Amino acid sequence: MKGLILSGGSGRRLRPLTHTNAKQLVPIANKPILHYVLEDLVSAGVTNIAIVVGDTGDEVRASVGDGSRWGATVAYVEQSAPLGLAHAVLVAQDFLADDPFVMYLGDNMFEESLDLIVEGFVDSEEAARLLLARVDDPCAFGVANVDSSGAIVGLVEKPTDPPSDLALVGVYLFTAAIHEAVRRIRPSARGELEITDAIQLLIDDGANINHRVLEGWWIDTGKKDPLLACNRLVLARLPGDGVLVDDDAEVIRSTLVGPVVVAAGARIVDSTVGPSVAVGAGCRIEGSTVDDSVLMDGSSIMGQQMVTGSVLGREAGIHGVGGQLDRRSSVLSVLLGDHSLVDTTGVVDEVISNG
């Protein structure tokens, strides 16, 4: 079985962070999301993998390389524009050939083991196997219509009137039957080749379409709040007191509240950090309190009474005097792109002068 990872989306929902970063490389607990996907595939025995890339292809290649560090062989497929999941299958057909494959969205993470999901597929009579999860807002997803026997009888993309609460999770198993289906469909109203339309063709043709319903959590990390939720869930897996500090990091007169992870070269002084904080390589936190946040490499937080629910891009910063305001006035929650700076000094001075 082959693997196909989709890493070509524009990441509009995470801007400004994704103006300069591939959304699949945003870190969760100091490791890029895409690396978790690769680990999942390899752990399930899928080692022949292609990654579909777009404008951020160079960054993805630099991060993943040839895949050898995971014991995999990784090739790259260029997608001219993010024209839909079925379009990604279409452009990857030379790599996929007639082999069964796992298609995995590169910005999705889930708790369940992938090997349990792919088990038995190759030797089955199934043309496709879909991964489903119950969601509160099915209107935002592709949704499965399941009959009383548990069989999928229809799929609809982002419906206004959902037939169920079972959303398509970002993992799909296919045989070569999907290739004819993606060639037959036409772009949807939003101009994309929808994988749900291709699967619906298989259903209409009487193909055997099976599914699994996830038992654990699943998160599409394409927005700030879900990304932070995923960071909390992954950090919660840390053993012991949940505090993991690299030997090359410095923690001076500070308190770390687990779960928290601190990468090499980071420096934390006179601060309280955690819970649920990932501090990237070379970050600086001084005179501040930080919780529930992701700090990418080289970012800094200086003189802040409370930073919470925040994502800082590479070399981004929040700087000020801190410690002089009541907590309600000085709580910050931000999403910063690379090399951006929020200076709160003037805000602090104005509030102090106004009493």
List keywords for this structure.
355 residues, Spore Coat Polysaccharide Biosynthesis Protein SpsA, Chain A, UDP N-Acetylglucosamine Acyltransferase, domain 1, 7-stranded mixed sheet, 10 helices, elongated
Approximately what portion of the residues adopt beta-strand conformation?
A: 25-35%
What is the mean pLDDT? 89
Structural class by SSE content: alpha/beta
CATH architecture of the largest domain: Alpha-Beta Complex
Helix share bin: 10-25%
Low-confidence stretches: 323-329, 348-355
Under CATH, the homologous superfamily of the largest domain reads: Spore Coat Polysaccharide Biosynthesis Protein SpsA, Chain A
**Helix tally?**
10
Integer-rounded radius of gyration? 22 Å
Number of strands: 28
CATH topology of the largest domain: Spore Coat Polysaccharide Biosynthesis Protein SpsA, Chain A
CATH level 1 name of the largest domain: Alpha Beta
The geometry reads as elongated
The structural domain count equals 2
Largest sheet: 9 strands, parallel
User: Distance between termini?
Assistant: 67 Å
